[in-house]
């Protein structure tokens, strides 16, 4: 016993010293900067690394390099079609957009008035159905060639169609199409274009400065002399911009304008200058998952964290599967083979997958653990982006006169950005994270563990529910107390006791007959003579 006591004291002392050492070292361990943390053994795949805010870069408010226009801008169709688009797009009906707008108007007097939605895309062309709600944000491709304010020239047509789904407000009562938040303000930033490409740098003697971007643009009115970019929309809105296969716009694609760096700059600048309440990005960068993260991705990751902390709702298209962006159909969903940025940064970005008109997941919608919600992304109707047009478009022209429907997660994303604007207008004191949470919690959850999967995230958005449902998770709100419900029982049968008497009498008769039978059988067995016999 004495020996045990003698050995016990040193053990306790050693334990105390070890615990104290761990306590001292723990803060030092936590102080290791995010950028210095080692990647997990299997790399970064479904979950990105911690944010490194040292990668936050300033907004230069100009292109990162010189770009030259190589294709003609979108023009009205010359095919002679004359299609009247008066019916409501199926996506509007599916989401009950009109009812959602009525709810906000009844409570606030307008559908999104006072809310600013930044559209980072190919620019937005002025259209009469934006009224005076279209504002200049900036141009990161080139100096506008036609005297428009920065960001208000859309050579590709993609950004105008995206912005139309968010905030178009037709002045023709016969037109069924309308933007989700038709009173919201659109702030446009031209960040990429497939009709521009990096200019060939020619060394100037005694100078290392490249020529200005304006010097490489064609003069005003000369875009028709460039190789044709495709059709456009007729006066009645039958067609739209070229090159919109699956509606995707890829950053850092060879021979085009648009990089992750300028995307990060714009996001940071919007938040720093408080230029928007909601950001929509129908642009992304798709690459093979390698278990690492690039510098451009780190810059975007830091920018979206900065913007989210500043109270901005950030919405992005989940991406479109193509030959260069393979679908995530691998066995282990937690280890995607394709990474899409900015959706990858799901802690700060609400990414949007697409469904088709049958309510199924659109085949082109990229799957992944970052998908937040889903919205309609096929058979799209939106504003005709051709300059001078005042109508709609529902087709895109590929290879001359080959028409195809407009589709892509690019056009599912603005449905969600528009809804975020409505929620912001309805609940102005709700934080950005609160708005995102409300959209997720009220979505039509899939039949999956936790009500979420890698195809539609938390489900297809439900605008009416997002605007009206009481959520216990919201700070300061309580779940409604249900009113007491009276039990709906059938009335008592107090008119006659005859049925009960007949039933009891029948039961008693049956029991009596059983008892008599048992008595008779017992008597017979008792009176039967016993069998006797002797053996010799």
Molecular structure report:
The chain has a seven-stranded parallel β-sheet, sandwiched between helices. A two-stranded antiparallel sheet has the order 1-5. A two-stranded antiparallel sheet has the order 7-9. Helix content is 28%, strand content 12%. It has 536 residues and is of the alpha/beta class. Helix 3 packs parallel to helix 7, helix 4 runs parallel beside helix 7 and helix 5 runs parallel beside helix 6. The chain has ten helices and 15 strands. Strand 12 and strand 13 form a beta hairpin.
List key phrases describing it.
single chain, 536 residues, alpha/beta, 7-stranded parallel sheet, two-stranded antiparallel sheet, 15 strands, disordered C terminus
Tally the helices: what do you get? Answer: 10
Shape: elongated
- pLDDT average, as an integer? 82
Helix content: 25-40%
- SSE order, one letter for each helix or strand: HEHHEEHEEHEEHEEEEEEEEHHHH
Sheet with the most strands: spatial strand order: 3-4-2-6-8-10-11
Q: Stretches where pLDDT falls below 50 for ≥5 residues?
A: 1-36, 78-82, 203-225, 227-238, 240-246, 478-483, 532-536
Biggest pleated sheet: 7 strands, parallel
Number of strands: 15
**Gyration radius, to the nearest Å?**
34 Å
DSSP strand content: 5-15%
In terms of structural class, how would the helical and strand content be classed? alpha/beta
| End-to-end distance | 85 Å
Fold blueprint:
Blueprint: H1 2-30, E1 67-69, H2 90-95, H3 97-108, E2 116-121, E3 134-139, H4 158-167, E4 185-190, E5 196-198, H5 260-273, E6 278-281, E7 285-288, H6 295-309, E8 313-317, E9 338-341, E10 350-355, E11 371-376, E12 382-383, E13 392-393, E14 395-398, E15 402-405, H7 409-426, H8 432-441, H9 463-468, H10 498-527
Parallel strand pairs: 2-4, 2-6, 3-4, 6-8, 8-10, 10-11
Antiparallel strand pairs: 1-5, 7-9, 12-13, 14-15
Helix pairs in contact: 3-7, 4-7, 5-6, 7-8
